[in-house]
Structure formats: structure tokens, C-alpha cells
Amino acid sequence: MGATPVERLRALAVGDRFVPATVLGGRLAAHGERRGLAFDLRQVDLPYPTDSSIPLPADPPPGRIRAFWEDIEGIAARLEADQADPALREYTGPVDGLVPLVGDAEVLLVHAAPVSRAAVQAASALRVVGTVRSGTVNLNLEALDDRGIPVFNTPGRNAQAVAEFVTGAIIAHVRGIVAAATELRDGRWSLTPWSQAHAGMELAGKTCGVVGFGQVARAFAPIARGIGMRLLAVDPYVDPAEIERAGARPVNLEMLLEQSDLVVLMARFDGSNRHLIDAAALAHMRPTALLVNTARPQLVDTDALRAALRERRIAGAVVDVFDQEPPARDDELLSLPGTLLTPHIAGASRDTVLRGADQLAATIVRHLVDGDLRGCVNAAAVPAP
């Protein structure tokens, strides 16, 4: 699998309006040059996001596919065709949109484009695939495994972006910044923050419970500690000593919920933790506490969250991820008190794009030159050189 210094490889970079193909291809070329590897690059950008915003649907269509940067009616129109590859989700464009593009590409780099079974079959010369995402939901891994094609992704590329977003969203919400700024734009000078009952709290000295202690939590911990928050953390997959070294106290989930002024979800969804925060968990939270979810919607029982907010059993919630994206126009969550809702943007930063492209290119080139499988998500399916 190792490439010789004089070898030229054919590469296809498929980007979009967030991660341009020129960024993907440019970083691949730069890393290749340092290792004596050259690429014949083809760069294609898909026209997504389709607009600066899309309307919330009045009646969301049924189906497992979420609207990822596309009008939900457009998604509904192609649901039947998308069933051609049920292994894929959270991608942009027609499910087999890459079939006419892959041609004789040996290296394929994508962001949100779908790498379907048909696309894998059409790419007869394919040697390696990389996606500048933390997961591989837009790739048919089974089809790639069948051919022994290594797949690389970019875990942690947006960890700093999410950590900073969480911090900013919490401050903006608890201090009433968003509400006050909206009133001013609407022609009103808000005096609400000057009443004792509605004045926002400071974060210094408060206890923040972090659920999941991966790369996002590790980026968040020094920010939170710098503000002066005390940190509790729970993660069954992380050594408690590692949590302590990051300045947090390892506890169990029940203790974290009971003692925290802020409960921040930073865990990955793996199926076993579906509805980790359910009605029983919410009942353990303080009535003055805030729940923050920028991780995955499956971690929270949204019906239970709606009830807790409606009945004011918790003070509020910051939510960036939803069961249905975008949510229905009449979703009660949109009108409940104490909420700050954002359209799945926690990881969207310019630095995330550049960092992810650089991380992916470095990994791909290292594999091509050295046969290195570090970071390969399907290493077990890749034949020995």
C-alpha cells in the first residue's frame, strides 16, 4: 500500500459551501509534497447548504433521513430513492450522486457527500477514503470493508469549536443576552435584567456537570475552570485519574445531576446510552439547573424534557440538536420558557474546516507513504501489505 516518492495518484475531493473542495485538495497536495507524493486532483463542490436558511416544516415527512443542509420538502421528494442505500444518513445530495464522479480516483476525500455502495462499486481504482467528519455516517462502510479499502475520519476536529460554543451559549442564556438583544432590535429597551427575580447568575463558583469526557469535554474543561466553575464529570470509558488530571471530579451520573447547576452533555451516542437523560434523570436535577445538549438528540428523552420545562421542574435548557432536524414549526420546545435553541451549529467554525482538512490530509498521506493505519476506522478489514 505504500506509495513511492515518484508516484502520482489520482484524487477526487468533493466539498461543499462549508468545506470547499479546494481546501481539502489543497491540504492533500501540501502534505503530499512534503513526503514526495504528488496528486492529479479533481475538485468538485456540491451546492450545499442550499440557502442561508430553510423554513421549519408545518408537517415533517416521516422517515429516518434528517434534512442536512437541504429543504425538507426536497428530502421528502427523494426518500424513496434514498432507500437504495439504507446504510447512509446525514448526507447531502442524491444518494448515488458520486457514481458519475468517482471514475478512476484512487483517493477520495469528502465532507458530507454520500459514499454509497454504488459509488464504491463504481470507483474501481479506489485505494483510500477520507471524510472530514468525526463519524462515518455518510459512508457505506460495509461496501468499503468488502473491498478492503481503508477509511479515515477526523475525530476531534470541532472539539474546540463546540467547547467555545457551549461556554458562549451558557453565558448568553443565563445572563439574558439573547432576549435583551432581541428586544432592542425590536425597538424595546429591556429592563428585565434589573429585577431580582430575572437577573442572570454568574458562572464563577457554580458547579458544572459534564456527561461524557472525550475531546470536547477536555477542550471545555480549561475554559470552565478559567471562569471559576467547579467541574464534575462522568464517563464509564475514561479512567477517573484522567478526569482528575483535567481538573474535574469523577462522580456517578446521579450525583452529578443532583449537585450540578449546569448539566452539559458531551457524550457520543452509541446506542446503549439512548435517553440517558430521561424523566428519572431530570427528576434528579435541581429546579434551578440548566441542561445543555450540543451532542446528540438521542441522549435526551425530548418528551420528558418538554414536560420538565413546561412544569418548571428545571430552570431551562440550551439545545442545539433535535430529534427531527429541522423541528416541526409547532414543536412545543420552540415556545417553552427558559430555552435557548440553536440550529445544530455548535461545531461550525472556520477553524474547524481548516483543522479538519489538515488533519485528514496528514493522515491520508501518512497512510499512502508508510502504510500507516493509525486512525483507520476499519483497520480490521484492510489486508496486510
What secondary-structure arrangement, pairings included, does this model have?
Blueprint: E1 8-15, H1 21-34, E2 38-45, H2 72-77, H3 79-82, H4 99-102, E3 107-110, H5 117-122, E4 128-131, H6 141-146, E5 151-152, H7 159-174, H8 177-185, E6 207-211, H9 215-227, E7 230-234, H10 240-245, E8 249-250, H11 253-259, E9 262-265, H12 279-284, E10 290-293, H13 302-310, E11 316-319, E12 339-341, H14 350-370
Parallel strand pairs: 1-2, 1-3, 3-4, 4-5, 6-7, 6-9, 7-8, 9-10, 10-11, 11-12
Helix pairs in contact: 1-14, 7-9
Please describe what this structure looks like.
- This protein has 385 residues and is an alpha/beta fold.
- It folds into two domains: 180 residues, Rossmann fold; 183 residues, NAD(P)-binding Rossmann-like Domain (Rossmann fold, 3-Layer(aba) Sandwich), CATH 3.40.50.
- Helix 9 links the parallel strand 6 and strand 7.
- Helix 1 crosses helix 14 and helix 7 packs across helix 9.
- It starts with 7 loop residues before the first strand and ends in a 15-residue tail after the last helix.
- The mean pLDDT is 93.
Structural class: alpha/beta
CATH architecture of the largest domain: 3-Layer(aba) Sandwich
CATH topology type of the largest domain: Rossmann fold
Oligomer: single chain
Total discrete domains:
2
CATH level 1 name of the largest domain: Alpha Beta
User: If strands are numbered along the chain, what order do they take across the biggest sheet?
Assistant: 8-7-6-9-10-11-12
| N- to C-terminal distance | 6 Å
Low-confidence stretches: none
- The dominant shape is globular
Biggest sheet record: 7 strands, parallel
Order of helices and strands: EHEHHHEHEHEHHEHEHEHEHEHEEH
Chain-averaged pLDDT: 93
What's the CATH H-level homologous superfamily of the largest domain? NAD(P)-binding Rossmann-like Domain
Taking all Cα atoms into account, the compactness measure Rg is 23 Å
